[in-house]
Amino acid sequence: MAEYTINSTLTSNQEIQVPILGLGVWKSRPKECFEAVKFALESGYRHIDTAAIYGNEADVGAAIKESGIDRKDVFLVTKLWNADQGFDEAQRAIDVSLKKLGTDYVDMYLIHFPVSGKRKESWRALEQIKKDGKTRAIGVSNFMVPHLEELLKETDIVPAMNQVEYHPFLQDTDLKSYCNEKGILLEAYSPLAHGQKLEDERVTKLANRYGKTNAQILIRWSLQSGNVVIPKSKNPNRIKENAAVFDFNLSPEDMKEISNWNENFRTCWDPTTVV
């Protein structure tokens, strides 16, 4: 993967090309979100991930517009929030998101969380939203294997992507294998475990060996694992640092070592408890 670039893509089962590295904007307040997205786009990013609940869709859209980059060249993702799940509710929610984003469509629309009693109707709504041309592809977020199995019994459209917390200290290999089997791209959010494991001595050892930062080691591992990765930052130096991961490869031996680091260490919500 050393020959890849920030704009290299993975192909989803819905025949859409997803840039392997993107910018996450969770917890980025509106003005700082605008500046972060604008800087990321200037730095070569072409994949921006937001959500209705983040409260910054308008700033994401404004930054894309001001960048001067053609809308078709930016892969834009947003998500259906829990309170808006359901068939009619989701139809209204996408229109609100599109208005805030200042665009006629998004490239990927995700169900943000597998809400009990609502997710099936929400998926039916996403199917219609895709047919209506308001999104190029549809997927899910925080879905575990049982949620995906349930969904696939109800639909002929397999989610293009499943966005979940994934990093060396949280490796759900069963979920990863299932997604691979079904052609679902796994997108890793919180690839740095919210910084809580950034100074782990094992990461530091590898960073010193490769002459890279600890964050770059963690991001590179996720990329080489075949994931789409969306590290979050509003700091210009970190945004650039997170993208400087395409000039080296972790060796097979080091990839194997990291595969043994799993601790089931979650830093966000735990969807395994949702039935």
From TrEMBL:
* A matching Pfam family: Aldo_ket_red
- Which keywords does this chain's UniProt record carry? NADP, Oxidoreductase
**Which residue positions does UniProt flag as site: Lowers pKa of active site Tyr?**
K79
Q: Where is the active site?
A: Y54
Which parts of the sequence bind substrate? H112
Residue span(s) of domain NADP-dependent oxidoreductase: 22-260
Recorded GO MF terms? oxidoreductase activity, acting on the CH-OH group of donors, NAD or NADP as acceptor
Has keyword Oxidoreductase?
Answer: yes
Q: Which SUPFAM superfamilies match?
A: NAD(P)-linked oxidoreductase
Superkingdom per UniProt: Bacteria
> Known InterPro entries for this protein?
AKR, Aldo/ket_reductase_CS, NAD(P)_OxRdtase_dom_sf, NADP_OxRdtase_dom
Concerning its family, UniProt says: Belongs to the aldo/keto reductase family.
Protein name as it appears in the record: Aldo/keto reductase
